[in-house]
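re: ur question from the group chat, yeah i did fold both. here u go
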Amino acid sequence: MSVVTDNCSRSGSPTALTSEFPRRRKCALQEATEPNHIRLEALARRRDQSLLELGKRCLAVLMTQSQRTRYLKTGGILALLLFFVYILSPPSTSPTSASVGSQTIKTKCTKPYDSSKPLIQYAVMIDAGSTGSRIHVYRFNNCGPTPELEHEEFKMTQKRKGGAGLSSYGEDVEGAAKSLDPLMQVALDTVPEEYRPCSPVAVKATAGLRMVGPELSQKILEAVRHRLETVYPFPVVSRERGGVEIMDGKDEGVYAWITTNYLLGNIGGPGNNPTAAIFDLGGGSTQIVFEPMFKMPDKMEEGDHKYELTFGGRKFTLYQHSHLGYGLMAARNAIHKTIVETKHSSNAQDQSWLSEPVHNACIGPGMQAHVNVTLGEKHPLGEKVQVKMVGPKHSPAAAQCRGIANKILQKDAECPLKPCSFNGIHQPSLAKTFAREDVYIFSYFYDRTAPLGMPDSFTLRDLQHLTDTVCAGEGSWGVFEGIADALEELKGRPEYCLDLNFMLSLLHHGYEMPLDREVKTAKKIDGNELGWCLGASLPLLSKDSGWQCRIKQIN
């Protein structure tokens, strides 16, 4: 029995357990004849299974040790490849947030398309118009090859007696400069402090300031520049790049064209989408810009009207012209002046009529208006006169008013380079070179049609019907009762009939657009203001655009 006991004794080492595997099976059989043999046999089986599993684990350890070095090398190569893929990948288009000071700015990518540009940029543009000033604060991202507008803040100066434009302050140049303070407060409220030193500001004055003369206008502009540079933290665009200037009329129109087509997605992206024409009606001037399509061998005539533009890598040859003196306020004065001079020519020796009401077919029936008419220097009646204008008593006179509007367009003026639109100005025929593409009319076009319920798209014939209804007088205004504030608008503007007649005359008689031609009008596209300001701001985001980041002073 001692031999059996020695041969079947347990060993404490893993090696002994593995090498004695056959012997243990024999011991188990020998013990089967002993008491409790069934229990012992079950224990032996479980022990054998444990030994087998332990052997497998030991073998796995040995194999892992032999392959570990190779796995580490392979993993390192894969990690390096993934790093390069991340670096070279295009910007993510999923929205992300960037914390700036106390503000969190959401944008659509995590890094700029061009590493030399910041992810987010701001630009501040002030439109110093003839009737008031307006500020536009734009925020862009550089997620793609062309800056994308993300947000716009807009505000205009409050109305004041005598006008709110820079020119209305006359010799008070400091007052003119300070009139922009409420607008600049919007810029301070909108642009995070960290971005202000690298957010350029520019001021572009239009026709109104041009009319006060070069000496006074320059003094006003210098006062504006000085205040912006000394009071506010934004870099002002240089004099050489027109940071504070009277904008050339052709630039005003082209910038408005860029704004409209940029917001419509016609330019700045992939593809060669057809572009829209723009007709901008301001207070002192009106602009037209479009991309005419000529049939070979015809092409654009050379001249100041031709404007070659590259935007987003695409080249455009545009027709543009700014008709100074044909903005809505200037047209009002021209129509009133025509009526006054007609009256004066039949009463040259007697000026007593100036104290009496003067009949004006462009004033609504039964309405009246006290009008200040500018006649010009050395006029027999003086440079300016105030006249009480009264409309027809009963019968409407829309056709008569339109005749006066047609007259001031001077369609019979000499046309040195044919064809001409009006006042002797060359223009390619819209019917031949721009017959089907979209035409957008805005500014005063929108301000006079939208309050009366006109849709975003209508024909000139629709505009003619609206004009005739307004000029027919209050007895025909029942159609406007369901439109909020329409009747109040009509009753508060005796010259509404004049305004609509001039617009219709300008489009149909001046630009020779047929009555069935459809036009589109809007104040905003995708929540962004139309006009020239956005188009003028986009170039400021490029390098060498006339400004440098300001260094913040440390006290």
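okk and heres the other one u asked abt
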Amino acid sequence: MKITAVIPVRYWSSRFPGKPLANFRGKSILEYVYQQVVAATLIDDIFVATDDERIEKAAQAFGAPVFKTRSEHRCGSERVAELAQNIGSDIFMNIQGDQPFISASVIDQVASVLINEPTLEMSSAATPFRNVEDFLNPNMVKVLCDQQDTAIYFSRYPVPFKNSGWKKSKNWSDYFGAYGLPDLENAAVKKHIGIYGYRRSVVAKYLEWHPSFLEVQEDLEQLRAIEQGVRIRMVFSSQDSPSIDTPSDLEKLHGAKTSR
């Protein structure tokens, strides 16, 4: 069984233009992500998928193979799908290019689920929330799962709704202010890590499926698959993998420790 890892990267970002090439401890964010993927043991080959020449040149400079994609893709999964049309692998991994601390062991975990369960079509990862501030941050995506660890829903909004808290507060400011870590633990809500595993048959459909209503509302590409009835099995890790969405995120991470 052949597994190909893809780091889909675009240069322009409304919140942080040029983010993948931003300097982080002497290297670009993209190079850190690439090195973490290289350290995973189940990956057979790796590609940076981009339509931007600046990304292409930077990736080639640190030795990463590059697959040039079309420019009209709306999400990373569509870039992976285009590459899958040209690569004969069984499983494709999508590792988002803004997570310099993505753990090689998490990458292997997400791949292992698809290797060990042939009927599964997709997999992803999550970690516990460590503070309420992250839970209330729309850049930190929330995931709720069923009892088989299959994702029910992903949202930027603080889910699930805590009805008992609303009955006490009756206003949004007090409602959100009353949240504590025990509430998050009891609700079993987790913080999504930006990684996906796809069986070949599913990733190919990303170019056939139109963006779904929920995907567009939340700006979350994985909801396209969920609305098509695809099961996404989640694996859980104690290791956080903070993403860099804004320049201030980058400043905060300069003092963080790398996960392995």
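fwiw on the second one: The two ends are 25 Å apart (CA to CA). The mean pLDDT is 92. idk if thats what u expected
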